[in-house]
């Protein structure tokens, strides 16, 4: 992430010349930073322009609308999450899986409010946002499925569906777990599940163990 | 469901006197019927009043706003689904589970468009709708968890979280499965997963087998 942000520019109005590529990245990263303290729908183009020390007009040169900017921010977070959780191909399959889950838990616990509001807040029903989330889930499914043949599992339609369901399983228990720890869902209609929260270790164990478990279920289902 | 609807009233303008209780139920059921052919956000209060042969004013006597009416329709569908899928306590646990899953698959395949648009359409982010869905999921989790002690499973926090995740797993694979069969998600941004669709039997097998699988994962996680 970094803080390319207001350091070299900011409210002083002093402008820094950046390449178009870097300017765009700077604007998106400013959006990501703001997202730590407020939901996406409360991030205005004026806020970003002001913090970047650029005119609103310049911002609209990079993003056609506030909506486009918001989508770019969500896209950035999703890509970043996928990179941070990329499987380490040097490990054996179960260690690779655990590494990915641990990186994912690190990622979401660094920005719990962002994660919950992105996936359960009012932006979550926007078609463009849904496309980004859906593409992210599909990428997670694909990279998981890729490793199955090496451990003797044929990724047929049932297995693929089970892996997809596992991604939804992890997403849902992550949100419930973050809420159990008192993470507010701004704007949050969900109530936390009752009961005490799992430790980070228990949570990781559950998410990791559930994958081979549902894949085995799929193999059972396929075999009739 | 039935078709209390336009039979005894309809566009003719002839009004039928119903008790407040029955009138309310009639209006909701008309909403449920219309939902089979269009997304909720396209169901207007005028449509319903017209079909029921009542004035718009009378409809607002029962529901303070179009939004309240929509929430009541979703609430009705959720309660109906819970009743239709209630576990048969006379069966042994695995048969009880299979019975519930089969009833659920029957329920959603009777109204695939409704199911997908409710859970993935633009209404899905509305806080009141989310509360209904969340309460429905919680009811599914609770009634599942209730049966665990009888088969020797302590429903601790980890097991409860796994059951919750299983509900999300089933919901997600159901939507993917319906989409694989060409159910359109109006207004649908999701692309169907590639690959051929599972048979109904394979799908039920997967959803059923996944529950004991993730519960076993949770027991493993809890034991450290």
Instruction: Note poorly predicted spans of chain A.
Output: 1-13, 185-194
User: What is the CA–CA distance across the termini of chain A?
Assistant: 48 Å
Return the structural class of chain A: mainly alpha
Net shape of chain A: elongated
Radius of gyration computed on alpha carbons of chain A: 20 Å
Please tell me the overall pLDDT of chain A.
86
Number of helices of chain A: 9
CATH topology name of the largest domain in chain A: Tetracycline Repressor, domain 2
CATH architecture of the largest domain in chain A: Orthogonal Bundle
Helicity of chain A, in percent? Answer: 55-70%
Element string of chain A (H = helix, E = strand): HHHHHHHHH
Strand content of chain A: under 5%
Number of strands of chain A: 0
> What kind of oligomer do you see?
homodimer
Chain pair with largest interface: A-B, 56 and 56 residues
Biggest sheet statistics of chain A = none
Number of domains of chain A: 2
Question: In CATH's first tier, which class of the largest domain in chain A applies?
Answer: Mainly Alpha
């Amino acid at each position: 992430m970094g803080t390319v942000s207001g350091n070299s520019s900011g409210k002083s109005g002093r402008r820094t010349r950046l390449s178009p590529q870097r300017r765009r990245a700077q604007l998106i990263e400013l959006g990501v930073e703001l997202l730590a303290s407020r939901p996406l729908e409360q991030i205005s183009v004026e806020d970003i322009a002001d913090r970047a020390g650029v005119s609103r007009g310049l911002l609209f040169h990079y993003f056609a609308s506030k909506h486009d900017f918001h989508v770019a921010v969500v896209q950035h977070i999703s890509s970043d999450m996928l990179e941070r959780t990329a499987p380490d191909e040097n490990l054996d399959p179960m260690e690779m899986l655990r590494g990915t889950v641990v990186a994912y838990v690190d990622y979401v616990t660094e920005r719990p409010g962002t994660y919950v509001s992105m996936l359960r807040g009012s932006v979550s029903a926007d078609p463009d946002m849904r496309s980004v989330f859906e593409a992210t889930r599909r990428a997670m499914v694909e990279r998981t499925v890729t490793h199955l043949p090496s451990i003797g599992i044929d990724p047929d339609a049932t297995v693929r569906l089970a892996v997809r369901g596992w991604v939804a399983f992890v997403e849902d228990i992550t949100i419930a777990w973050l809420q159990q720890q008192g993470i507010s869902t701004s704007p949050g209609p969900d109530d936390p599940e009752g009961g005490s929260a799992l430790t980070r270790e228990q949570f990781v164990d559950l998410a990791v163990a559930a994958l081979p478990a549902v894949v085995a279920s799929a193999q059972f289902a396929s075999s009739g």
